[in-house]
User: Fold this.
Amino acid sequence: MKRKAFFLIVLFMSMTVLSGCWSRKELTDLAFVIAVGLDKTKDGRYMATFQVVNPGNVAGATQRGGGSGGVPITLYKATGDNLVEASRKGSQKISRLIYYAHTNLIVIGEEMAKEGIGPLFDAMERNPQFRTTAIVVIARHRTAEEMLKILTPIDKLPANQMIKTLQFTEKTWGQNISVHVGEVINDLTSEGKEPVISGFRLVGGVQEGERQTNVQESEPDARLSADDLAILKDGKLVGWISGKAARGVLWGLDKIEQTVITIDWKHKQEAIAYKVVRAKTSVSADMKKGKPVVSVHIGAEGDIGEALVPLDFSDPQEIFALEKKIQKEIRQEIIKAIERAQQEKSDIFGFGEALHRSDPQEWKKIKADWNDTYFPQLEVKVSVDASIRRTGLRNKPYMFGR
Assistant:
């Protein structure tokens, strides 16, 4: 009887403490912000652009198989002396509560990035709704507002188009990198590592891209495309890195999953395509004779994807010579990337972090001058070990088999 009474008392006390759905939010009262654009106004204030989902139009467009279901997103803008103020002032224009739990993309205007991105992330980190897994990109030669206006085919939500494009091109091509808010914050606060962020560019005009007819054409008048990599120093955009040097950055950061290396062979340019299917980069650092020295080793495995010259893949000597050429090409890519970063005095590879781990005492002495003095003159030793695992069904290309 006493146990039963005790149980009833505990149950009654629990009922008075627990408040049930005290924090409930009705779906019809929420404005789902899928992307946020950040720019600066002419008078130096922050301008936030919110890309809000129109759920009915997204579902309607999917069911009707095209862009005839209405515009899938709506943009709202608000300005403020800080991001929190801009966010709260946005409620003056939206008939629902601004909700950031589904925000997956942050677009920063190029001019805003040049002034400095550091202050932008404090509000994001403190907001309990906001996910630090949201992807960050920089609008190349554009404002963030202009980029978020563009309507896109295939993925009806422009934010999803940008995110997926970035993720897939990083995985298969290796000249762009998908960086989220948490990583940017870590790099901004790290000693010996600067952020590197992918850029996005607009091909075509803004006026054409924001019209619904842009997604009703087989070839859209305006398209969003992943662009070069942004180099930042002390939180400010200082330069861009492109092409093979951009892929060199991903080699150095151990971010290469798959890519294609083309090499010259027997006086023919880009004659052999080498498909990288597996790669691993290791970095070590040490002090030698009072100077920091970094060693980078890259291991790669891949297949022959294409051959446009006569070549006998059954000959071990030919395979060995090909591997040497591939190793040389990869080494040149990462060296170009390091030289470009040294020009901007920005350690985007985290070589300083590697030195910090290996020799904390020496790092304390040089960390204040690392980017400006030590990193630009840093000796970096690069070694590459690339192997060919498969050459396909033919030992000789069919064009030269007779």
User: Anything to note?
Assistant: Confidence is low (pLDDT under 50) at residues 62-68.
